[in-house]
Amino acid sequence: MKLFKNSKQLLVSTIVVAIAIPALAAISKLDTSKSTVGIVFKQMNVPVDAKFKKFSAVIDYNAAKPETSKASVEIDLASFDLGDAEYNKEVLKKEWFNAAQFPKASFVATSMKTSGAGKLDVSGTLTIKGKSAAVSFPMNVKQEGNTQVFDGSLPIKRLAFNIGEGEWKDTGMVADEVTIKFHVVTTQ
Question: How many C-beta neighbours within 10 Å does residue 109 have?
Answer without folding.
Answer: 20
